[in-house]
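Customer ticket, subject: "Can you confirm the structure for DUF4345 domain-containing protein?"

Message body: Hello, I'm evaluating your service for our small team and ran a test protein. I'd like someone to confirm that this is what the system normally returns, since I don't have a reference to compare against.
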Amino acid sequence: METSTYLIKTCTPFLWILIACVGAALRSRGVEDRAGRLEIWQRWWAIVALGCGSVWMTVSFLTIGDYMADTIGFTRSPFQFEIAFANLALAVGAFRSASGSARERLTVGLLAAAFLWGATVGHVYQWFVHGDHQPGNGGGILVYDVGIPAVMIILAVVQSRQQKANPRDEVVSGTAVALR
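Agent reply: Thanks for trying us out. I re-ran your input and got the following:
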């Protein structure tokens, strides 16, 4: 496989992380209070990184299943349909949690971790045991699968601790809308 093709295939999941980080950084410029910045970052992470990334996976597995299977290093399988709808469930949870509490975001982060970290174990197993070095089996997807839930969990825990220390900050998270 050509190097540029390999890089494009392996780095595609990074786009959702990059868009979320750039969007949150731009939107939170000038926001003075920590609670407000934290809220913005959580919303961008939930909506763009997990939500849009999961919708992308849903659509990809449903519409270009052969390509996705090849990119991962497998042959097409009926399980791809199930993977598509597991990702759709993550997207629905992520979009819903964007306007929810730190507790709801933590729950969605833990649900994402259960699925995506399990997928990570599968990818790593295939890499080492079966020599599957396809671009969709390592690299970007591993960073995405490990990083998205981890950041979501960390941000929710930080917000929860902050709200316990400063109960007035809960008003900020309860009234903010969408990407703020």
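A couple of notes from the result: Helices lie at 3-11, 14-28, 34-63, 65-72, 79-97, 102-130, 140-165, 169-175. The chain has one domain: 3-175. Feel free to reply with more questions.
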